[in-house]
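idk why but the lab printer keeps eating my pages so im just putting this in chat instead. protein + histidyl-adenosine monophosphate:
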Amino acid sequence: MIQLIRGFKDILPGESERWQYIERTAVELFHNFGYREIRIPIMERTELFARSIGENTDIVEKEMYTFPDRKGQLLTLRPEATASVVRSYIQHKLYARDPIQKVYVIGPMFRRERPQKGRYRQFYQIDAEVFGVAEPYVDAQLIHMLVTLCQRLDVPDVHVVINSLGCPRCRPGFREALARMLAEVSGQLCSDCVRRSTRNPLRVLDCKVPACQEAIGDAPAMVDYLCDDCRAHFAEVRDTLTRASIPHRVNPRLVRGLDYYTRTAFELQTGALGAQSAVCGGGRYDGLVKALGGPDIPAIGFAIGFDRLVEIAGLNGRQFADGPQLFIAPIGDAGRRQACQWSLELGAAGVAVELEMTTRSLKSQMKRAHRMHAAHVLIVGDDELAKGAAVLRNMATKEQSEIPIEDLVGNLRTRLAADKK
Ligand code: HAM
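predcted complex ->
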């Protein structure tokens, strides 16, 4: 038997209802804040990700699904959505309509990481991006929107962690100071960090190896190197969060795994996830639109790990009805013919209906209806047709009643609607 690929997964009926509910809740909230959907391809030219995420990141160095197509063009399954959204914003000159664009993307991303709980090779993100607003209020608004979503979905134990990564004016000074410090402790760093300390020293800050964390105990903090503008921006983001009663913690080690960030970087972390504690990550990327060939337009966004959100959202104990409202159990050919007609009309009229099409006995049909968690069963055979009334059984109360066959669809809809209340 051919099994699915390691790190990939199926989302089965019974689970997909949770995904759909969470997606609907997020989309409704995003629409309230003026975001609109953008759909982008699942594959792009490799160069797009290499240039935006950064050549010296784990994602680009080790994790991308990259392959040549039949003509030798290098393509990559998207490891994230931001780069593609920026490409699309530039390519379609969305800024010419209005530089301020607020968009969201929901879909699969691909990273060849080591699979474990909460970490997959095909995973899903709920991603939102805002172009054209440099003011710190939007940073706070995005975080507020995320916290609200987590509250609506009953996600336990959520903490907002933020940092400022500075800008091209102030970051080089910090980078130098950090590199100097790393050179002094290089003997205590893991081999990855030794490499990172010269090529991409910021990456060392979020290395998960305990020895590295210990070695960099005295590492300088970016927040101490911010230029006046970046410092004022960060202070206003924090003040706005405080005014909105959103508790948050500054973590000077929060650098994120993608190189495009400037100024505000943030994560929503939760204790409910074990090692993979980030349910969401994001930040500003004021230089990316220009770096990819567009105008100089600031931007900011986030991506929620959809898989992780599904795993931990309590949803206030919500259960999803997975059975049909009505299961039609016909007996005999005439009953089946009539039942088929009704099922077509009922389905079109908005009733979740399941028609038994096989010729199995009423007893086994009832068993199947029970297994499917059908709310009601409608029985129709020769006797019912002769009498002019079908039998409706409420599966929860086991009550049976007769429904006149004349205008059965209308009668039944009224009855089911009344029963639902
Ligand atoms: P990221 O931190 O790489 O950021 O990913 C965002 C979220 O996706 C993570 O916090 C995590 O919940 C989820 N995630 C990442 N990798 C995996 C995986 N292998 N399995 C399951 N979940 C995963 C970005 O992707 C940026 N594009 C976010 C952003 C948008 N920044 C600005 N705009």
